[in-house]
Amino acid sequence: MPVLRFDNVSKRYSGGHDALTEVSFDVAAGEMLFITGHSGAGKSTLLKLIHLSERPSRGAVLFGERNLMKVRGRRVPLHRREVGVVYQNHQLLMDRSIYDNIALPLILRGLRRGDIGKRVRGILDRLGLGARERALPSQLSAGEQQRVGIARAVVGEPRLLVADEPTGNLDPTLSAEIMALFASLPERGTSVIVASHDLGLVKRMKKRVLVLDHGRLADDISPEDLADE
Ligand SMILES: Nc1ncnc2c1ncn2[C@@H]1O[C@H](COP(=O)(O)OP(=O)(O)OP(=O)(O)O)[C@@H](O)[C@H]1O
């Protein structure tokens, strides 16, 4: 069963603008893919439908067997536990330490302190931030802050990670590092969807690419086809 299915999804914003039109695709468990397209093509809107910041106007978004149309009220935060989100502006709590920023989702979930410590330190070490856990976000570089945002999104071991232009502000070396980190998540059971308009980066990763054009799915390119270009 796919981890995610878009079934003929359209999204019209209240002003009457069609951001997505009849978009259908599946994401397999353990798959990583990119969504690309021009500015305004609908990439962010598509991701917002997955973590329920927006709702489709027509069609269905299925997360495993869950029809997201039916997820309302108290069930929204429960759904979001299974979907990690990485933004370009990582929205860290600037007055809390790196450790606290990453631990927060686990504290909210009521995990035991010992378990939280193990998980947070594990992810900090993997991201090369082990020595910085007591630092404040303002004491870190932009790339380090972005890694903290990613750590926070993956510390709860979500089934799906969605990232919206996650390397937008970063230099090529850091972008490559972050992409390598994303690419390592599927083997740990997390599927990954990355929206990016950086075509060079998307091509280098050699993953499946969905191309949006004015809200329509214009292409669904397999990694093999990318390699041939
Ligand atoms: N809240 C909103 N209300 C009305 N229109 C919106 C809203 N959010 C986005 N749009 C419009 O929907 C279209 C798709 O926007 P979206 O942000 O999904 O595109 P995008 O591909 O992510 O663009 P970018 O690469 O510039 O971030 C755009 O024309 C945008 O102006």
Automatic annotation (TrEMBL):
Taxonomic lineage: Bacteria, Pseudomonadati, Pseudomonadota, Gammaproteobacteria, Lysobacterales
All residue ranges annotated as the ABC transporter domain in the record: 4-229
Record keywords, A-Z: ATP-binding, Cell cycle, Cell division, Cell membrane, Membrane, Nucleotide-binding
Molecular-function annotations in GO: ATP binding; ATP hydrolysis activity; transmembrane transporter activity
Protein name listed in UniProt: Cell division ATP-binding protein FtsE
Function: Part of the ABC transporter FtsEX involved in cellular division. Important for assembly or stability of the septal ring.
Protein localization: Cell inner membrane; Cell membrane
One Pfam family recorded for the sequence: ABC_tran
Membrane protein topology class: Peripheral membrane protein
PROSITE patterns linked to this entry: ABC_TRANSPORTER_1, ABC_TRANSPORTER_2
An annotated GO cellular component: plasma membrane
Quaternary data: Homodimer. Forms a membrane-associated complex with FtsX.
GO BP term, example: cell division
Family the UniProt entry places it in: Belongs to the ABC transporter superfamily.
